Amino acid sequence: MNGKEDGKEVTSSDPEGATETINLTVTDFVLLGFHELPDFQLVFIFIFLVIYVATLVGNSLTTGLFCFDPHFHSPMYILLCNMSVLDMSFTSMVLPKLLDIFLTGNNVISYHGCIAQVFFFVVLMVSEYFILAAMAYDRYVAICHPLRYSYFMSLQDCFWMAWTSWSIGVIEGIFFTLLISSCTFCRSNEVDHLFCDMKPLMMLSCSDTQTIEMVIFVLGFIFGFVPSVMTLVSYIYIISTILKINSKEGRHKTFSTCSSHLTVILFFYGTVLGMYMRPKSSYSMDQDRLFAILYAGVIPMLNPLIYSLKNQEVKKALCRIEKQLFFSKSSGPNN
Predict the structure, then answer these.
(1) What is the tens place of the pLDDT at every residue in 263-295?
(2) 305 or 47: which leads in pLDDT
(3) 137 pLDDT exceeds 80?
(4) From CA 318, how far away is CA 314, in angstroms rounded?
(5) Which neighbouring-strand residues pair with 321?
(6) Is the dihedral of CA 251, 255, 75, 313 positive or negative?
(7) C-alpha span between 74 and 149 (Å, rounded)
(8) Alpha-carbon distance 180 to 158, whole Å?
């Protein structure tokens, strides 16, 4: 009998020469990551460390700014705070383990740790869909019904939208986690990805996954379709309203109030659609890893810059903080 313990296959031969496979329970997984590029480990360490630090610093600054500066205590910035938390969580779910693999070579993740990554990935992905839809609705009200903005988008309404977005994410995360936990993994424990995602894990399952795949597809479509339609309809009304403005300067000024959000939407939806809506014939794990780096690292790093560079209120607040720091230093005890 030839075999390996802890989740690997054990094979034995009967007297007639037939081969029988005995499936043992997987207790851990191996994240392959960029195993085929060993010569670039130091480059990857530098790149991902810069991305991780920049993401944490940028999103922490914007979160602190929006939370503690009274000028930003409005629905739009509360939703932006939620986006910053989502971005930091996305990056922290993937990059620390990836850096650990590069630094120590320890690419093993426990079964429960892998399932936890699936849970948090689904929670964060679904929550971001709905937060982006809520932000689109906020921009719709601000541009199309500015005089009734406080009526349609009170702070209470905003908190309710944020709470609902996270709640739907948690509910779907629990459901998807239960589905993936019902699978039996015995073909291999090597996950050819940067983290434990649904697609590569389903490829490792030796149980019948057709029903599970159908349920995941239907739920994913519903929970992705609803906020996508909300976002699309909001921007149809927004663009229609902007085009009715007579002056070019007025159109530009109005569009600038939602350009940051629209940029983030295009980045997010473009990456997710490229990741999950490609036909099977064009499936490539290299492409999946590239898209994973984009939505788990690059986009969360860029989001604070996009909102800061295109938002005049944020620029003014940063200038105020810079002036306060400058004057506090110049008026120190030595002066």
Answers:
(1) 888 888 777 776 666 655 556 677 777 888 888
(2) 47
(3) yes
(4) 6
(5) none
(6) negative
(7) 11
(8) 33
Task: Please tell me whether residue 24 adopts helix, strand or coil conformation.
Answer: coil
What is the phi/psi pair of residue 146, to 5°?
-60, -35
Two tokens at 298? 């690059």
DSSP code at position 244? T
Q: What is the DSSP string of 47-93?
A: HHHHHHHHHHHHHHHHHHHHHH-GGG-SHHHHHHHHHHHHHHHHHHH
Tell me the C-alpha distance between 115 and 113, whole Å: 6
Structure-token pair, residue 100: 């650990």
CB neighbours of 302 closer than 8 A, spacing ≥ 6?
267
- Residue 123 Rama label (left phi>0; alpha psi -120 to 50; beta): alpha
Phi/psi for 329 (5° steps) reads -75, -40
State the pLDDT at residue 233: 92
CB 166 within 8 A of CB 265: no
Q: Tell me how far apart the alpha carbons of residues 79 and 77 are, in angstroms, rounded to a whole number.
A: 5
Cβ-based neighbour number of residue 235 at 10 Å: 19
Tell me if 7 sits within 8 A of 185, measured CB to CB: yes
Among 222, 264, 241, which Cα is nearest to 126's? 222
